[in-house]
Design a protein that fits this description.
- The complex is a heterodimer of chains A (307) and B (254).
- Chain A is an all-alpha fold and 307 residues long.
- Chain A is 73% helix and 3% strand.
- Chain A has one domain: Orthogonal Bundle (ABC transporter involved in vitamin B12 uptake, BtuC).
- Chain A is built from 11 helices and 2 strands.
- Chain A is globular and about 55 Å long.
- In chain A, 49% of the residues are buried.
- In chain B, 36% of the residues lie in helices and 24% in strands.
- Chain B is built from 11 helices and 10 strands.
- Chain B has 254 residues and is α/β, with parallel strands linked by helices.
- In chain B, strands 6-7-8-3-9-10 form a 6-stranded mixed beta sheet, with helices on both faces.
- The longest helix of chain B has 16 residues.
- The chains are: A mainly alpha (307), B alpha/beta (254).
- Chains A and B meet through α6 and α7 of A and α3 and α4 of B.
- The complex binds adenosine-5'-triphosphate and magnesium ion (MG).
């Protein structure tokens, strides 16, 4: 166990953490506007992976693509993943959650519905796409771009980090600097008053799911590029990203980003020090510890929600 | 602007004619099985300040909620300039020029003063700078604190922000729900002075208040609600002199 090896794991933790961060945003945004823990978001992520695979299988990349072709394939695959993720999230809100909102269903009913929707989507994917795992068609040769502390940083690592950072910067802009963003924040803070200001809550909620779905779907594609796509792939990243959202302070977008990065690093550090068996243990231990001292999460709301 | 103000001063004491800006006609509102409004009739004419008084639970807030589309009446009608608007959702109704300052202020706690004001102008493509300047002139305190988070303002400042936010939507009719609630007398006086100014600048006001004496001094006319029904409707000066009103709402022995 050399120090260089440790740094290498740290770098891989950041790569993983970027993915968690992007998924966690989907949980936290939806929680913000609906106070709903959308457990089905993990399946939105999984569908994003399949979106990428299906699109790239349909438009088979040539062997040994040129640089330009590679960029196109990646963009195409990511767009397809994001689009399918958004479509699933949009449908989920329309079909599963909106009717509950219309009837003012209690919180618990939403939660059970979310879990049910998650099972449904998960089994639907198993049925539709077969239950074996598929590899993402090769879009570029995944070579070592440079070596950092003896760790090979490959094209895929850079792709994940750069796309994730771009998505987070874009999302932060949308939430804090656009009209849709003000609508989202207003609905999160006081939906009734938001509608008095002219905010159409249904529209804002629907678009929030679409944004979460775009990010989750794109993350699913990136995850698939890094490993494989299979109908069960949503569960662990999903639950880790959910923990990341809680760790950062659920409802807080920047908190979700921070929490995701942190849990990614904690995960690879755990593997480094204690081995792969402990991979998912430490992250949740950190979550429990932090919540004991800061129940609202790292960047959690200091100001209470209005009654 | 001054034309509207002149119009307002003139008819005090006389019968109002023509189409009211807001009319609630035989309005019945239910919360589940509870009948909160039992067929009330209220008219607000352009340029007026109308006070809506009544004990706790009389249905004052419910009346405002029905007028701004937050609640759909089970029976009866809400008319703006003679056109039915009941059934239109509140987010669409703001386009008809209704500004509702809800009970308890309800500023967005995690938005700055400036962002709160901008939310008030959400129905427009972008907030009107002149309108914001006007709000800052009416409430210089808000200008000083424009970068402060809404949730950290004092009660009086929050009330000013809630009113300013509603003004940003350029309402023709301002509905105010107990703007004096929980505020020190000096601040209450300030807020009422500003309401007067807003009205003189051409905005019609429907004012719900517990503070009956202040409200009736400002208002042209008033309604008294009792358990979901209109018990009295008269000129503000007559209500102010009425022994029943004095006993029930001005804290004087009967
Ligand atoms: N959301 C609700 N669900 C059930 N009943 C309600 C609801 N809101 C109000 N009510 C009932 O309707 C009646 C009228 O309430 P409303 O809030 O309009 O009274 P108010 O005159 O504004 O009182 P206050 O001066 O205390 O604000 C009350 O009996 C109240 O209990
Ligand atoms: Mg009330």
């Amino acid at each position: 166990m050399s120090l260089n090896e440790l740094w290498g794991y740290l770098v891989l933790g950041v790569v993983l953490g970027c993915l968690y961060a992007v998924i966690a945003i989907g949980y936290t945004l939806v929680y913000g506007v609906l106070q709903l823990l959308n457990f089905a978001h993990s399946e939105v992520f999984m569908f994003g992976g399949f979106g990428g695979v299906l699109a790239l299988t349909a438009w088979t990349p040539v062997v040994n693509p040129s640089g330009m072709q590679s960029v196109l394939y990646v963009a195409f695959g990511m767009a397809a993943g994001a689009a399918l993720g958004a479509a699933v999230a949009y449908g989920l809100e329309k079909v599963a959650y909106r009717p509950l909102r219309k009837h003012n269903a209690p919180r618990l009913v939403f939660l059970i519905t979310a879990i049910g929707a998650s099972f449904f989507l998960y089994n639907l994917a198993g049925k539709l796409f077969d239950r074996s795992s598929v590899a993402m068609p090769q879009m570029y040769s995944n070579e070592t771009v440079f070596t950092l502390f003896d760790t090979d940083i490959k094209t895929t690592h850079l792709l994940i980090v750069f796309s994730a950072v771009a998505m987070m910067v874009g999302l932060d802009y949308v939430v804090n600097r656009t009209k849709l963003g003000s609508g989202i924040r207003a609905v999160a803070q006081d939906p009734e008053v938001a509608s008095l200001m002219g905010v159409n809550i249904d529209k804002v909620v629907s678009r929030t799911f679409v944004i979460g779905g775009l990010l989750g779907g794109a993350a699913g594609f990136l995850f698939g590029v890094n490993s494989k796509v299979v109908y069960t792939m949503g569960f662990l990243p999903g639950i880790t990203a959910f923990a990341a959202a809680v760790l950062g302070g659920i409802g807080n977008v920047r908190g979700a980003m921070l929490g995701g990065l942190l849990l990614g690093v904690v995960e690879t550090m755990t593997v480094f020090f204690w081995g792969d068996d402990w991979r998912y243990v430490a992250g949740f231990a950190v979550l429990v510890l932090v919540l004991m001292f800061r129940p609202t999460g790292l960047l959690g709301e200091r100001l209470g929600r209005t009654a | 602007m001054s034309g509207a103000a002149d119009l307002k001063k003139e008819p005090a004491g006389s019968e109002r004619t023509g189409t009211p800006l807001l009319e609630l006609r035989d309005l019945r509102v239910y919360y589940g099985a509870i009948e909160a409004l039992k067929g009330i009739n209220v008219k607000v004419y352009e340029g007026e300040v109308v006070a809506l008084l009544g004990a706790n639970g009389a249905g004052k807030s419910t009346t405002l909620r029905a007028a701004s589309g937050m609640l759909a009446p089970r029976e009866g009608q809400v008319l703006l300039h003679g056109e039915r608007v009941d059934g239109i959702k509140s987010h669409d109704l703001v386009r008809f020029g209704i500004g509702h300052v809800p009970e308890g202020r309800r500023v967005f706690p995690r938005m700055t003063v400036k962002e709160n004001l901008e939310m008030g102008a959400y129905r427009f493509k972008s907030p009107d700078r002149e309108e914001m300047d006007r709000v800052y002139t009416l409430f210089p305190r808000l200008k000083e604190r424009r970068t402060q988070l809404g949730g950290t303002l004092s009660g009086g400042e929050q009330q000013m922000l809630a009113i300013g936010r509603a003004l940003m939507g350029k309402p023709e009719l301002l509905l105010l729900d107990e703007p004096s609630m929980g505020l020190a007398p000096l601040i209450v006086r300030q807020i009422f002075d500003i309401l007067k100014e807003i009205n003189e600048q051409g905005t019609t006001v429907l004012l719900v208040e517990q503070n009956a004496s202040q409200a009736l001094q400002l208002a042209d006319r008033g309604y008294v609600l009792e358990t979901g029904e209109v018990a009295m409707a008269d000129e503000a000066s007559s209500l102010l002199a009425d022994p029943r009103v004095r006993a029930a709402y001005l804290g004087e022995g009967a």
